[in-house]
Design brief:
Shape: globular
Strand content: 15-25%
Binding site for allantoate: 223, 283, 296
Organism: Gluconacetobacter dulcium
Bound molecules: (2S)-amino(hydroxy)ethanoic acid, manganese (II) ion
Subunit structure: Homodimer.
Order of helices and strands: HHEEEHEHHEHEEEHEEEEHEEHEHEH
Number of strands: 16
Helix content: 25-40%
Protein name: Allantoate amidohydrolase
Distance between the termini: 30 Å
InterPro entries: Amidase_Cbmase (IPR010158), Bact_exopeptidase_dim_dom (IPR036264), Peptidase_M20 (IPR002933), Peptidase_M20_dimer (IPR011650)
């Protein structure tokens, strides 16, 4: 492969350094590892910092009605529709520093690159840092992306977090009004397209020696909540044969979820990531357990069949063990294709800067792009990440790859201008 000349990497370095900066207190709710939940203690400070970087890059910055940070680089005419570049500023608990945030920093660096050269377009460029993509605090994900896309669900404004704090109260504490949450929605004619740069969060690009990849589609997701109700009892006196142990039943259900997830094609995955046990003390037979079920597959049908199998087997386990089961579908995100025209532009930009044919791949991870696709055509570019590790403090990127991604983003925007 042609050896590319050593790159000047100041912009890539700045993007990585800013992600590292935002990975520590007070921008993160944890003293040791990163945790940046939506409207958490560090959210306001994080948005302030990003707003300052957006302004420095030549944008105006504002916090929208849903607590997203929005930077705007005007086109040649005011009020022009925008090419939106975005990703998310929140994280999972004990997350990595680059999941989401690197895409926001690359959006800022893309604008800075054009501003430094005095380039203006027939369109504006907006950079959006979505406040809630992970769903780390409230039970569903992509809440503020759905606010921007105008696709909120009836239950969304009534969401309550694990501590019993409702969305309205959390917004009020942040200086926002829940009755205005829907005002974050954008008009279709304002958004020409949405582009997201994100770490792959998987091993493919590294294994095959690619710095970047072009995303063809984003996998379908279901998120369920399961509530198992048994009979609490004294751990010392309740005979085993008389028990209706909610945790033992849940444990059998977790193994059933794992078995069903493993019985399908490689891209079918099923995960129980969160479990609360009540009352949660060593000398009481658990009476109640709540756990999450996350099911994904590249196509809706495979996801749906796995969900049907799980919805059939869990009640059987509950009946046999004499416990109650309430299974609720909390989130349904269908598989989302990226726009073929934009993806062709992105592929051309990627091959121009890497000197190699681009690697095209499906994203098993969910992204803001799958919701923004309800508002505008979308394109995604992936960056290699070390060992494919993500949702883990060990998440890491190479500065050179970030620089190459920036070059691909600026090449994409220049091609987009020609369309
Ligand atoms: O869950 C996901 O795939 C994403 O990280 N929110
Ligand atoms: Mn930790
Ligand atoms: Mn994530
Ligand atoms: Mn992400």
């Amino acid at each position: 492969m042609v050896k590319m000349p050593a790159r000047e990497t100041a912009s890539g370095l700045r993007a990585v350094a800013r992600c590292d900066d935002l990975g520590v207190a007070p921008y993160s709710d944890s003293d040791d590892h990163l945790f940046r939940p939506y409207l958490g203690a560090g959210h306001a400070a994080t948005l302030d910092r990003i707003a300052a970087w957006m302004t420095e890059a030549g944008m105006t910055a504002r916090v929208d009605a849903a607590g997203n940070i929005v930077g705007r680089y005007e086109g040649r005419h005011p009020d022009a529709p925008a090419l939106v570049i975005g990703s998310h500023v929140d994280s999972v608990r004990d997350g990595g520093r680059y999941d989401g945030m690197l895409g926001v920093m690359l959006g800022i660096e893309t604008v800075a690159w054009f501003a430094e050269r005095g380039r203006r377009f027939a369109f504006a460029i907006e950079v959006i840092g979505f406040g809630d993509e992970e769903g780390s605090r409230f039970p569903v994900s992509m809440l503020t992306t759905r606010a921007v896309a105008g696709v909120l669900g009836d239950q969304d404004l009534a969401l309550v977090d694990a501590a019993g704090v409702g969305l309205a109260e959390a917004l009020d504490g942040f200086g926002l009004d829940v009755t205005r949450f829907v005002d974050a929605a954008r008009e279709r004619e304002d958004v020409l397209a949405y582009v997201e740069a994100h770490i792959e969060q998987g091993p493919v690009l590294e294994a095959e020696g690619h710095a970047l990849g072009v995303v063809s589609a984003i996998a379908a997701q279901y998120r369920f909540r399961a509530v198992v109700t048994g009979v609490a009892g004294h751990a010392g006196t309740m005979a085993m044969r008389l028990r209706h142990d909610a945790l033992a039943a849940a444990a059998e259900m977790v193994l059933a979820v794992e078995r069903i997830g493993g019985a399908g094609p490689e891209d079918l995955v099923a995960t129980v990531g969160r479990m609360e046990v009540g009352p949660g003390v060593p000398n009481v037979v658990p009476g109640a357990v709540t756990f999450s079920i996350d099911i994904r597959a590249g196509v809706d049908g495979v996801r749906d069949r796995a969900a049907e199998a799980i919805q059939a087997v869990l009640p059987e386990i509950a009946a046999r063990r004499g416990v109650g089961l309430e299974l609720t579908l909390q989130q349904d995100l269908p598989a989302t294709p990226c726009d073929s025209g934009l993806s062709a532009l992105m592929a051309d930009a990627v091959s121009a800067v890497t000197g190699a044919a681009p690697r095209v791949l499906v994203s098993g991870a969910g992204h803001d792009a799958m919701v923004m696709a309800r508002l505008a055509p979308v394109s995604m570019v992936f960056l290699r990440c070390r060992g494919g590790i993500s949702h883990n403090p060990a998440e890491a990127v190479e500065v050179e790859d970030v620089q190459v991604a920036l070059e691909a983003m600026t090449a994409f925007v220049s091609r987009f201008e020609q369309t």
